[in-house]
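ingest -> fold -> write
write: protein_1
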Amino acid sequence: SSKTCYIPARDIQSITQANLNKYKNKKWSTFNQFQKSFDIWCMEMNDSTWKKSKCNCPIFFKNYICKHVVGMAIRLKYCKPPPAAKTVPIGEKRKRGRPAKAKPALLVQ
């Protein structure tokens, strides 16, 4: 058996029930409504083996795994992230000033 989850894409915080119904029925009256249907990722979570779950985001179509599948597997406690993953700083700030010029690759220093 599997559960279907709908995940908002990009910067969208939540999905309205009306948008979800339009996504499921695939009935749009304007092109903007059709475009908004691409702001929802549909993920099918496989209960027995989470690695066989499916998502309709472009990354999943390319690699057969994506952050949505892994995130839901962790959230539903199907798998546990390694402790090393929790020590990685998220969104570290860049240093001040202009970035250093790249050194010539083939010159011996």
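write: protein_2
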Amino acid sequence: MNTTTAAATEHKNLTHLKTGDIVCSTYGYGLSPVQFAVITHTTDKSVYYQEISRETAEGEWMDYYAVPNQEDYKKVMETIKTSTP
């Protein structure tokens, strides 16, 4: 398997994701909602996540920047630490 195929397979199988990573989901145009989630654990065939809220920062007219809520992230990470054997 060449490196391009290996990289594509890794990306397809989501093996590059690890516990604690933040992922973002958007759709549509312009004023689309932005959603964030924290990867809580992975298996060979699954990725589990917990959604977290977002914070917004002012941008240009009718525009804003969304960032993950850091307090929510800390809570999820603490839950992961205390529930991991």
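write: annotation protein_2
Helices lie at 3-12, 70-83.
The first strand starts at residue 22 and ends at 26.
pipeline exit 0
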